[in-house]
Amino acid sequence: MNLAESAYTLTKCYPKDELFGMTSQIRRAAASIPANIAEGWARRSTKEFQQFLRIANGSLRELETHLLLSQRVGLCTTEAVQPLLTEATILGKQMLALHRSLLRKTN
Predict the structure, then answer these.
(1) Cα(85)–Cα(76) distance, rounded to whole angstroms?
(2) How many CB atoms lie within 10 A of CB 50?
(3) In degrees to the nearest 10, what's the CA dihedral of 62, 24, 89, 91?
(4) Which of 3, 34, 59, 82 has the fewest Cβ atoms within 10 angstroms?
(5) Gyration radius of the chain's alpha carbons
(6) 52-73 tens-digit pLDDT
(7) Helix spans in the chain (H)
């Protein structure tokens, strides 16, 4: 949720002509991460939770890509993007650890 909130805050300063482009892509990918984690957990099935964690991880990687592209095309600065990328790295490690824990549970 924190990463999604940070992504929304970052994109507030993007140009209006990016509202349906990069702004939308970043916000959707960022919001998709906690939404998929929550949906997977709510299914009450370890295998389904694992699948939703994989989907959340895909959204996380998509978000990272959009953030890097935003920086490269001049929509934001390295200084603005770096905290989000750091947060994304930490979240990715946490999700991987959770996924591995669930794998041990099913084996």
Answers:
(1) 13
(2) 17
(3) -100
(4) 82
(5) 15
(6) 999 999 999 999 999 999 999 9
(7) 2-11, 22-42, 46-72, 78-106
What are the tens digits of pLDDT across the range 21-45?
A: 999 999 999 999 999 999 999 998 9
C-beta separation of 10 from 80 below 8 A? yes
pTM as predicted: 0.93
The CATH superfamily assigned to 2-106 is 23S rRNA-intervening sequence (1.20.1440.60)
3-state secondary structure of 19: coil
Residue 44 backbone zone (phi > 0: left; psi -120 to 50: alpha; other: beta) = left
Q: From the centroid of its chain, how far is CA 29?
A: 6
Rounded to whole angstroms, how far apart are CA atoms 36 and 95?
A: 12
